[in-house]
Amino acid sequence: AQLDDLLGRVAAARDVDRASLVSPDGTITYSTDHGLINRTERALGNDMLTAQTPVRWLLDAKRTRGSIVVQRDAATVAAEVRRAFLTQAALVVVALLLLYGALIPVFQRVTAALSDREARYRTLMEQASDAIFVADDKGRLMDVNAKACELLGYHQDELLGMHAMGLMSINDVAQLPLHMAELSAGRTLLVERPVRRKDGTFLTGDVSAKMLEDGRVLMSIRDVTERRRLENELRDAHRLEAVGRFAGGIADDFSELLGSIAQHADALALRLGGDRDVEAILGATRVGDSLTSQLLTVGSKQDLHPVRIDLNATVERMRAVLEGMTGERVSLELRLADGVDHVEADADQIERIVVDLVLHARDAMPGGGTVTIET
Length: 375
Fold this sequence. Notes:
The protein has 375 residues and is of the alpha+beta class. It is built from 11 helices and 13 strands.
């Protein structure tokens, strides 16, 4: 009765199904299951979860007298484990559902923000007036906008995967390489470069490059070919204007000098008569006067009056003057075709052109010859 009371409390405290005492020779000397008393230890069975503890009797503390064996039914333990697992699993599922319910609004907000960001990114890319390229850290193009395809003549799938250096001139890159160190330091590079189109031609582009936080490189290209052409034309116009002012200033002084020479040559002609050297001087002054007129035209100091001109009539009207210029050793022949169209030009300029041609032809034939004017 005392053992029932003692070991019963032990069994209850440890939540076991059975507690037994086993002697050193393997005999069950006591068990809460009285049917096992005086049987061998094998009677405890194998379908129980067993724990053994050595026991020393108080009257003989130096010798082990046996063991306390506590057992639980395996099926009971398995059932409890299943209940505990199912309970914990249910708690985990409930916790996950609660977490999922709490995170759904967050996921929705994040997804909406990412979608909005992507939409704004695509809008900016496609509406940009410049060609925009995004390259990875190896220089391979990952994204391009429609303007890039239009500007360079490629389809989008042809540009994607292409190396960015394939769009540049090798000689230009060799002379002015990209400074990756400056890009890595967060600086924005802006340089004017020739950019290769698909057909092999080049355009002049302002190329801007900046490294993004994730290591990719954002590039934009603005076509400045037309702007450069207009700037060059403006510089040429300024240069021509300066040359014109300079020529006009010279022409004024040169005209006065020629006038003085012609005046003295006329005086010599009156005194000497038909002197050949005097005629040469007068011819040279006429050539000089024609050059002066041209300089004044370049210098915009002479007004031009374009009108419809009959070239045949103009040349025929100049016949007597031209014959006097050629002299005796050079004859003048006119070949005026029928049905020559009228032209729109300044009459004085046309006459000066004819005079220049005849004078140069005469001077090129010191031994005599024929000057032919043909329309």
